[in-house]
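Per your request, structure below.
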């Protein structure tokens, strides 16, 4: 799958806490979110330094962007939970600082586990 396909899958499964997520999907979502945020930040910076009157665009879209940000945050939490499931760990590990990062970056199980089939 491509990064865009992984990101679309990520958004479609925002409230799906079951199943597994591959490390490729996890990193693809991180890269896509970073690229989108970088683009919006640079765009906003350019608008501000050029003094254009296009700042009203951000004012119009503040509420939808905030809603999308909240949606993305929930989707990322569910992705992290599915990522933990890929290595056979319980969702509760997401609450343990630093260990959760190690577990999220760990290679997943090569075979079916209690959370489902090997993710594609």
């Amino acid at each position: 799958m491509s990064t865009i396909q992984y990101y679309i899958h990520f958004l479609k499964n925002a409230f799906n806490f079951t199943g597994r997520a591959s490390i490729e999907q996890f990193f693809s979502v991180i890269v896509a979110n970073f690229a989108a945020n970088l683009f919006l930040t640079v765009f906003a910076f350019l608008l501000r330094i050029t003094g254009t009157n296009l700042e009203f665009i951000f004012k119009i879209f503040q509420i939808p962007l905030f809603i999308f940000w909240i949606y993305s945050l929930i989707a990322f939490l569910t992705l992290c939970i599915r990522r933990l499931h890929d290595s056979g760990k319980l969702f509760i590990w997401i609450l343990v600082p630093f260990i959760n990062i190690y577990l999220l970056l760990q290679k997943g199980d090569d075979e079916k586990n209690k959370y489902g089939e090997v993710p594609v």
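The chain has five helices and no strands.

Regards,
D.
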